[in-house]
Write a structure and sequence with these properties.
2 domains, 8-stranded mixed sheet, homodimer, alpha+beta, disordered C terminus, 5-stranded mixed sheet, 16 strands
Chain lengths: 450, 450
């Protein structure tokens, strides 16, 4: 019989254990932080009615949508983000849930993107949002969650850049550009990518800005100093614009509250050049950059929006939240060697040395597991060398070896797989001496994230 | 503007927080148990080439497949289980991974099933397998994992029923039915569902068995007594069949080893009537039933197979594993009131009482979080009654209330939301007295599974 070639679709990938252990650890950390603030998990279907997905998406997401007819002849599509499903979800369930509603949602999304840009067609999103409140406290909390999250992932050198669309709108108002704000913000958003000169060109071309206006817009992005200094420079620039002044006041409050709650000043920076292209942001906006990987782009972005679900309900649902760029962050952590090379979640390997002693190995493993250790028992009584090679390849640092002599003497050999050094530990007085010995062993190659 | 009706597709469902918290807890427990035995996580794409999915599936799964053409004109489909992707995955990566390879895989699968049978078209699978070994130790370990898993989920009254296809094949050999074993096993598998008489009819109709053969086959399912008694009755029935004798020997070894490793005798029961319809099982087979929900069906099933990936590689890949019926188990746990009614993962609610004190509430929350507590701060300084109603609805049992007087006095009120009773706790000496008070509080309505 000829076989079918085993392969994945272009733009899709398997996660092998090493990558998957890192992904699970990252997701666990995100969940722990989200939950510590009272965000609750939800999930929505991978497949939605096509009209749900195409209602709001841009032309680009519409083009990338995986769509088809199901068995019942319905037009359906695979979700391309977790925001449109959240909007549909809130419109459907907000009465039952009540607001404010704080949710996190971690799951795969699908986009038929051009893979030449290094993008995948299936990737994870990891979002949290507070829906149904306009309160500044929810903005502050969003900043705190981002901060705790990036810190919990093991980073100490990072910057959350914060801005407020109301400030930008106030400024554009003053410059006579408020009717072209979308185009201006889209161009401004590319500043880091394409540079000052090309943004100037775009402002002229797409926003119809004149040279004075272009100069003034760009000047906004060049305000310098610490957060208070920038706030002071902003105040005169928004004078006369109620929206702008309110935006500056909210930024002021946010920065002060976050600092008081423990966020170091250098980790939360006011940056008027952060615009975020998406039209639906209306208040605070966030982007997060790792100091050690400045070209990686933002690893956690979000902001406040006035109305999440206008397509699905007449109920006004304002909210604020952000999305952790899980795949991007994983790539960055790999680059920074923050990800373990082990391919096992267990820490102790037990060699199967004496075929007559299966029951003893099983008991030993069960006792160690009962004490909270992850233990892998090799299933075959193969040559010890082959078993230890297997263990080392998986990333184990410690193996337990016992044969007839050891069992008769009531001991077990604890072997350091890196050095080859062994020592005998007595089991006569129970499992505790072995647990102590394993605690002294070198840590497994799985670097636990803090 | 008219709105789009917010709705999910037939057979699909949203997970609201209460259901999702239960699902996450169940998945966490499964992961913890799998990992404690050294099973490592993997993931594969939701979408695969259609030929991968239709190669092995039955006519029924082929009919239920969600299939379409992607943007590149490729025929693709959504995975309908995690076994076919595992076969493709192992054929592709076994050289890089090495064997034995122990993996778990938890993820959604899709089947366009008839929803009238109470089935969903999107559901989670939760599988673990040991690939690339014929060792009996791997069979034993599979039984131990199932046992630890069901116990860790909070059940004490359950039965893992075990059988071995080699025993069945040996028996059918003796009865002159070995050329019709598939048809016999498929009928036998329905015994619990359709009863003795209809199985007899099916054996005549589909397996062409004569009345003597039917009587002997059914007699097999009626062996009684404890495991040892059944083993003794089996021995003469397989005498002369090498396969059958080997099967009895392996069952004997499995039962003895599992007992020695700590599985109580009444939780692992030899049951010759367990056949499992799928052709690809060739050795030990498992099904798991909850004593308190006998009609729920098996909540964890699996077994040993000779060759996982024949469609994709000429490499022989034997294995053994099982699949936790996550959705079925969740339904059962709901029926047994083992699932919490809370919709928050946090345990402490902080009311936002004094609008001037946002920073103080944020600091209090941060201190409690640093001590490992989940804390939700209400974002708006609304009326206290409305806030406490919100907290009670979410399932919080404890609220912290503090206003100008409390802050001035350096205290906080700890309020029991069930009784309405409050007591003051001093913060003068730091956070510890408050942590002690919260530890004494009634536990949140989220019942932590052991």
């Amino acid at each position: 019989m000829s076989t079918i070639e085993p392969r994945t679709l272009k733009g899709f990938r398997d996660y092998l254990p090493t990558a998957m252990l890192a992904r699970e650890q990252l997701i666990d950390t995100a969940r722990r932080v989200y939950r510590s603030y009272g965000f609750a998990p939800i999930d929505t279907p991978a497949l939605e009615y096509l009209e749900i997905l195409t209602g709001k998406g841009s032309d680009e997401t519409d083009k990338q949508l995986y769509r088809f007819q199901d068995h019942g002849g319905r037009d359906v599509g695979l979700r391309f983000d977790l925001t449109v499903p959240l909007a549909r979800f809130m419109a459907q369930h907000s009465a039952a849930l009540g607001v404010p509603f704080k949710r996190y949602h971690i799951g795969p999304v699908w986009r038929g993107e051009n893979t030449q840009r290094g993008r995948y067609r299936e990737f994870m999103q990891c979002d949290f949002d507070t829906i149904g409140t306009l309160a500044p406290a929810a903005d502050v909390e969003t900043a705190l969650v981002i901060h705790d999250l990036i810190q919990a992932l093991g980073f100490s050198r990072f910057q959350i850049r914060v801005n407020n669309r109301m400030v930008l709108n106030g400024l554009l108002d003053r410059l006579g550009l408020s009717d072209r704000s979308s185009a201006v913000l889209r161009s401004l958003d590319k500043l880091a990518k394409i540079g000052r000169d090309r943004v100037a060109e775009e402002l002229a071309q797409f926003a119809g800005a004149n040279p004075d206006q272009i100069r003034d817009v760009l000047r906004l992005t060049e305000l310098t100093g610490d957060n208070s200094a920038i706030l002071r420079q902003l105040e005169p620039l928004v004078a006369g614009s109620e929206t702008g002044q309110a935006g500056v006041a909210r930024l002021d409050q946010l920065l002060a509250a976050a600092a008081a709650a423990g966020v170091p000043d250098n980790r939360l920076r006011l940056d008027v050049s952060i615009a975020r292209g998406l039209d639906y942001y209306t208040g605070v906006i966030f982007e997060t950059f790792l100091d050690d990987l400045p070209t990686l782009g933002s690893v956690c972005s979000g902001g406040r929006y006035d109305n999440l679900a206008a397509l699905f309900t007449k109920e006004l649902l304002p909210g604020v939240g952000a999305s952790l760029g899980l795949d991007r962050l994983l790539a960055g952590m790999e680059e920074l060697k923050m990800v373990a090379s082990a391919s096992t979640p267990a820490t102790v390997f037990i060699a199967f040395f004496d075929p007559q002693r299966l029951v003893d190995y099983l008991r030993l493993a069960a006792n160690l597991r009962a004490a909270g250790l992850g233990v892998e028992l090799y299933p075959d009584p193969k040559k010890l060398g082959a078993q230890l090679k297997y263990a080392a390849r998986r990333g184990f640092q410690t193996a337990l070896v016992a044969g007839e002599n050891e069992f008769a003497a009531g001991i077990v050999q604890v072997k350091d797989l890196a050095t080859g050094h062994s020592r005998d530990v007595s089991l006569a007085a129970g499992i505790q001496p072995l647990l102590d010995a394993l605690r002294d062993s070198p840590p497994p190659r799985v670097r636990p994230l803090p």
